[in-house]
């Protein structure tokens, strides 16, 4: 039996038991059998959650790019590593083989070195979803520089904050990007950001949209001429197991974004292991994750996890709605995609379009469907299962975080029986537990509480860049000696986990603790509703009352909003109870979301509290324009005494 690849349920339980009883032996066997090392470790694990400090494979030396590229050259040199699908469907796809990737990464690494970048330097990458994004990350890893990828679409202010926090010496960007029918002036955003960044010495600019841009003499350099002169050969830097691999920023609820630091060996081992099992990847499969590499999903499950397994990974530059809402399905058919990993927010948007655009395409190649970014609601789960998977491709509803580095709780396809809205069972090596408000562990099944992890796993973030105290306070102070996820969860009668939402989404109404997730689920059951978000607002009698923001289906028919409000509250009464009825229901065209699909409830809370003076930087949202329309809608709502 191989611990690395789980093939049936009995084997899962055997492997899981071993991973919990003998965690060091378990991970040591996987690390020895499936990766190449310059030097073996002296100690598999040392940890102390009171500090908190975690070290995996201490004393080992390696380079992650040798595991993602070099070791595949002899057996998979001519296999496609990265399959780039451009924004424009008429532009041909680009197949980059492992051999070509090796040469491109070496060339880029040699350019970085020639520009004075060395081991430990931070490099900010602000590049759209084009091959240069993945290549630049791998080039940094090749020479030991720490990459900090910032989603290409964040504002100049958000970009400068992240550049300054990591003290980046270099920025890599492009002249611009395509997003559907639009072009975005990325270089202009970089120029604005760098007005407030004294640490940046060099800007490398890739050509993508061939626009006229301003190049600052001495600082800005076109990338391609430098690559043309660079050697396609080069040795990888020897890295220690716990050397930082990258910094990735995740938004705090307030204030500064948190620069999560992921280190080399543990991250490599866990992302490779979790990719192999979560997607049941086989040698000739074509795998596609639709996320942007600017998020942890893209780091772990477009770049490092797939490449460490010698996989073919699709990079898509465009959006699901261009040139029409059938684009995803056109790509699945064109490249015969076997594993498809996307976000519930995309699934819901596509479901709104009906099935005509789906039925035009042959999706029979699909073997596994994935969901990531937020818990998937039941209606979306069934639409995805019935119309995309044709009930033949299991859905993995995966729960994990930027901080965890890899998938933590998820079905393993063809192994774990699935259940709509449930992330099901923990991955090997992951030890979840539920705590009540007093911090007591909730044993047994059919319980719900705060989700914690009580034992370290290899891919966990080690710190927040430059602020270890904030790391300790955020993740290790709520409960003694365990990692607090910030999420609530329930464990059902068979031990399956369901994520119930952020714990700060628990609202106390008339002394009752009401989680927003089950109420939102009830609202979403109404046939006229697409999606909803619920927040609390102050109430003279109840302490707090519930405010619902609701998106209605576009049926082309006008509906009486007062009647709809009554119907929605009736559904809540039936599903949750009368205590959970909404005091206010505002119908809106959209909800403010992060680029990874999470609803920004902080903004909705402020609007519900009638406090719109300081909403923070909304430019980093997927849909910043929706905020103003919700504010206006809230004013109209109050004026009409609904």
How would you summarize what this structure contains?
The chain has 642 residues and is of the alpha/beta class.
Describe the structure.
- The chain has 642 residues and is of the alpha/beta class.
- The protein folds into 2 domains: 403 residues, 3-Layer(aba) Sandwich (Rossmann fold); 130 residues, ANL, C-terminal domain (GMP Synthetase, Chain A, domain 3, 2-Layer Sandwich), CATH 3.30.300.30.
- Helices cover 32% and strands 23% of the residues.
- It is built from 20 helices and 31 strands.
- It has an 8-stranded mixed sheet, with helices on both faces. Strands 5-4-17-16-18-19-20 form a 7-stranded mixed sheet, with helices on both faces.
- The radius of gyration is 24 Å and the shape is globular.
- Keywords: Acetylation, ATP-binding, Ligase, Nucleotide-binding.
- Belongs to the ATP-dependent AMP-binding enzyme family.
- GO terms for molecular function: acetate-CoA ligase activity; AMP binding; ATP binding.
- InterPro entries: Ac_CoA_lig, ACAS_N, AMP-bd_C, AMP-bd_C_sf, AMP-binding_CS, AMP-dep_synth/lig_dom, ANL_N_sf.
- This is Acetate--CoA ligase.
């Amino acid at each position: 039996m191989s611990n690395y690849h789980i093939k049936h349920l009995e084997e899962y339980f055997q492997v899981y038991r071993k991973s919990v009883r003998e965690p060091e032996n378990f991970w040591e066997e996987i690390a020895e059998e499936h990766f190449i090392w310059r030097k073996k470790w002296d100690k598999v694990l040392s940890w102390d959650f009171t500090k908190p400090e975690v070290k995996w494979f201490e004393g080992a030396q390696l380079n992650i790019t040798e595991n993602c590229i070099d070791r595949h050259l002899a057996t998979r040199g001519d296999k496609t590593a990265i399959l780039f699908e451009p924004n424009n469907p008429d532009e041909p796809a680009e197949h980059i083989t492992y051999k070509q990737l090796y040469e491109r990464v070496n060339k880029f690494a040699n350019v970085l070195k020639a520009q004075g970048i060395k081991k430990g330097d931070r490099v900010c990458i602000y590049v759209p979803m084009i091959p240069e994004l993945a290549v630049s990350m791998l080039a940094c890893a090749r020479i030991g520089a720490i990459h900090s990828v910032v989603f290409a679409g964040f504002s100049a202010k958000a970009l400068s904050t992240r550049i300054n926090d990591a003290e980046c010496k270099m920025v890599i960007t492009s002249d611009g990007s395509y997003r559907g029918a639009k072009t975005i002036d990325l270089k202009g955003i970089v120029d604005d950001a760098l007005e407030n960044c004294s640490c940046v010495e060099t800007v490398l600019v890739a050509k993508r949209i061939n626009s006229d841009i301003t190049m600052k003499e001495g600082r800005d350099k076109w990338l391609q001429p430098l690559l043309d002169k660079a050697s396609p050969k080069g040795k990888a830097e020897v890295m220690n197991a716990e050397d930082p691999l990258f910094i990735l920023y995740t938004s705090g609820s307030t204030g500064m974004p948190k620069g999560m630091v992921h280190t080399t060996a543990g991250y490599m081992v866990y992302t490779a292991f979790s990719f192999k099992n979560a997607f049941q990847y086989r040698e000739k499969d074509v795998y596609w994750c639709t996320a942007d590499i600017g998020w942890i999903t893209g780091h772990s499950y477009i770049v490092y996890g797939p490449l460490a397994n010698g996989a073919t990974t699709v990079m898509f530059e465009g959006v699901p709605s261009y040139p029409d809402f059938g684009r995803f399905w056109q790509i699945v058919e064109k490249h015969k995609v076997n594993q498809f990993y996307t976000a519930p927010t995309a699934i819901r948007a596509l479901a709104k379009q009906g099935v005509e655009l789906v039925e035009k395409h042959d999706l029979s190649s699909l073997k596994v469907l994935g969901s990531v970014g937020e818990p998937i609601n039941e209606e979306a789960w069934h639409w995805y299962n019935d119309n995309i998977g044709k009930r033949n491709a299991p859905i993995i509803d995966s729960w994990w975080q930027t901080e965890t580095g890899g998938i933590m709780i998820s079905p393993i396809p063809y192994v774990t029986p699935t259940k709509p809205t449930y992330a099901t069972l923990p991955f090997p090596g992951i030890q979840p537990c539920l705590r009540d408000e007093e911090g007591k562990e909730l044993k047994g099944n059919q319980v719900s509480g705060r989700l914690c992890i009580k034992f370290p796993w290899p891919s966990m973030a080690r710190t927040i860049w430059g602020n270890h105290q904030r790391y300790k306070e955020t993740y290790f102070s709520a409960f003694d000696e365990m990692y607090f996820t910030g999420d609530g969860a329930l464990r059902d009668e068979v031990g399956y986990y369901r994520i119930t939402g952020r714990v700060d989404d628990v609202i106390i109404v008339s002394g009752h603790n009401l989680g927003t997730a089950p109420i939102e689920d009830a609202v979403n059951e109404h046939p006229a509703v697409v999606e909803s978000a619920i927040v609390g607002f102050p109430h003279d009698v109840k302490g707090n009352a519930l405010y619902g923001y609701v998106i209605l289906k576009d049926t082309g028919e006008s509906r009486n909003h007062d009647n709809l409000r009554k119907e929605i509250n009736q559904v809540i009464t039936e599903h949750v109870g009368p205590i959970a009825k909404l005091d206010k229901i505002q119908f809106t065209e959209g909800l403010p979301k992060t680029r990874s699909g999470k609803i920004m409830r902080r903004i909705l809370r402020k609007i519900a509290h009638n406090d719109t003076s300081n909403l923070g930087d909304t430019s980093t949202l997927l849909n910043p324009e929706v905020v103003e329309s919700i504010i206006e809608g809230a004013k109209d709502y109050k004026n009409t005494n609904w």
